[in-house]
Amino acid sequence: MPKKLRVGILGATGMVGQRFIELLADHPWFEVVLVAASARNKGKTYQEAVDGRWKMDTEIPAAVTQMELYAVEDVDEIASQVDFVFCAVNMPKDEIKAIEEAYAKAETPVVSNNSAHRWTPDVPMVVPEINPDHYDVIKYQRERLGTKHGFIAVKPNCSIQSYTPALTAWRQFEPTEVVVSTYQAISGAGKNFAEWPEMVGNIIPYIGGEEAKSEKEPLQVWGHVDDDQKVIVNATDVKITSQCIRVPVLYGHTASVFVNFKQHPTKEQLIQALEDYAGYPQAVGLPSAPKQFIQYLTDDDRPQVQQDVNFEHGMGISIGRLREDSIFDWKFVGLSHNTLRGAAGGGVLSAEALYEKGYLKAKADLDL
């Protein structure tokens, strides 16, 4: 293995940024060499900036505790020291779009956890097991940005991970209509119970912007690269409607899903398709890839957050309660870990796929 790529974390002090720090502590390919956050934290050590606010169950990795924070806006200074960045900043969307493009134009690839560029037509939004071919659109994005190496790649919303993988495994049976309700953990809002005590014993039947994401993002993931238009074109063969509810759970997004198919699969066919499904990360053995992407649980009371959210170190998807429905063809329940598979872990896996495909390289090896 060549020398590790140098990584910067933008938004390093927030919950997702902290998860990136945790996951990359002993990564075989990537090394965190720089951390950045809001300008008010500039010059503080990472330890000082997260004092009393470290939300992970593990200790802060020793390698980053004394790193001095940069301001996210220090684009040129940061770009000169890293090979690529993970972005998990908490800023208005127009500011996120601008800062991510600034890094890309500074020939520093951006692997983003943010939603700001998910609807930029030449920005790939990828679940590596499902649509790694969408990285092909990067060449057109580089044309637009005028870059040789820099680009932006994003991952989808955390909540769609709990049901889109199952529906993807069933695309051969031609799903046509989907009704999904998601029950989303509070860490999806970047909070824990100490910071959000009013969520204890409570349910909030609204999460801003989530229903549009739940209904539209799977269609983009199932789309294709149009080489004439130089963009991603969404799938049009499935209609999805959703409700998104915040529930008093720390980690884990659960989905209750109803689906109609053009074909008439049996329960046995559907379960076999789930268990057999694998993708690019499994084929090439990416470091963060789950060996089993989707598991099917036969007990009536599974999947459960407490028992199943950490399946495959939080990178696997759990499906259960598959049964025929009186109005739709089938219904099921899905579960995914929202800050691992759904956020930082999905971002790391995406970076691994980009590296394996040759999109991420050490700048020292490039003619820039």
Automatic annotation (TrEMBL):
Superkingdom classification of source: Bacteria
Catalytic site: C158, H253
Record-level Gene Ontology MF annotations: aspartate-semialdehyde dehydrogenase activity; NAD binding; NADP binding; protein dimerization activity
GO aspect biological process, one term: threonine biosynthetic process
Keyword RNA-binding recorded: no
CDD domains: ASADH_C_arch_fung_like (cd18130), ScASADH_like_N (cd02315)
All copies of domain Semialdehyde dehydrogenase NAD-binding, residue ranges: 6-138
UniProt xrefs under Gene3D superfamilies: Dihydrodipicolinate Reductase, domain 2 (3.30.360.10), NAD(P)-binding Rossmann-like Domain (3.40.50.720)
InterPro entries linked: ASADH-related (IPR051823), Asp_semi-ald_DH_pep-lack (IPR005676), NAD(P)-bd_dom_sf (IPR036291), Semialdehyde_DH_NAD-bd (IPR000534), Semialdhyde_DH_dimer_dom (IPR012280)
Cited Pfam families: Semialdhyde_dh, Semialdhyde_dhC
Keywords in alphabetical order: NADP, Oxidoreductase
Similarity field: Belongs to the aspartate-semialdehyde dehydrogenase family.
Protein name: Aspartate-semialdehyde dehydrogenase
Gene source species: Limosilactobacillus equigenerosi DSM 18793 = JCM 14505
